[in-house]
Amino acid sequence: MSPLKRRQFTQLAAASLTSTIVADLSSKVLAQKSEPSQEVIYGVNLLSASKEQNRENQTPSVEVSVADLATGKVLSKASVPVLSVDNLSSRPKTPRAFFLPDYDRITKLIVLADGTIVISTVSSTRNGYFNYLISIGGITSTVESITSAKFTAQTVLDFEKFNQTVDSLLSLPKNQLLSLVGTEGITPFAFRTLDLTTGKILSSDDLGLPQLPPTHRFANLCQDPKGNIFATEIGSEGVPVLVSMNLQDKAIATGKVKIQRLTPLNFEGRPLVNDVKDLAFSSSGQLYALAADNRVKNNALFTVDVKTGKMGLVSELAVEKFAFSPKA
């Protein structure tokens, strides 16, 4: 073989090897991108009210679903029937002169460390507001049907005022829950600790919880893997702002937990007009928001940058509240 032909052969072989390597790397990248997400999320929706439901001692019927994070595709779902509460307690009825027709709403979905799902709901009747906790335990796999799980229900007791409502929750140690308590679902809001065993609001404040501005709306409690607590706050500007606190970080003068206002939430360069529906952290520490997506006339899942408040669309997610399954 002449030197010229030998050189041409070497160049062709090298080019062929390079193309093979690039093609192999490209196929691996594409394969990684096409793999389904390992993260799954729980979602919950209200079902149509039953005529037999007694809103003063029974929970509404809900549908719990399991979906893939990346696509929003539902992997499984099951209905939770109307449940009678385990801790039924007599409470004075306070008939209202003016009221809307009876209704139910879901205020939060959380997953405890042992995998138990807890859903908080509020039922409104002529005789007042009735707050419930629906617990779903015994789930061994996030993608199996929950129809074989154990369902229990509690009513939330010992509010300071008859018209107070549990509007958000997150899990604390010692079988307790941190709750945002509103007044008929609106301001003023206050932090309260709830005993999950008894369903009672605790009168003592061992955590040094801060007092909240009476005219500001707070919602969407969640916690990152490091223990920092996040929520949204809406003040006079009408724009939802991401706020955070750590139960160990307290003001020297008051002994109360300090709240930090981080950044307004925004999408495509514009601040949000309405609050998000829910917030939750994935096991990797990424914050996600559930918000209305007018383009599909449904709710959708968004990533949230905690430093800038910038939101990025992930997928459509037709649920009212959501939470991530605990890390395996």
Structure description:
This protein has 328 residues and is mainly beta. It is built from 1 helix and 22 strands. It has one helix spanning 3-34, and strands at 40-46, 62-68, 74-80, 103-111, 117-125, 128-137, 150-155, 164-172, 176-183, 186-195, 200-201, 217-223, 229-234, 240-250, 257-264, 266-267, 270-271, 278-281, 287-293, 298-304, 310-316, 321-324. The strands form 5 sheets. A 6-stranded mixed β-sheet has the order 17-16-21-20-19-18, with no helix packed on it. It has a 4-stranded antiparallel β-sheet with strand order 3-2-1-22, with no helix packed on it. Strand 8 and strand 9 form a beta hairpin. The protein is globular and about 50 Å long. 31% of the residues are buried.
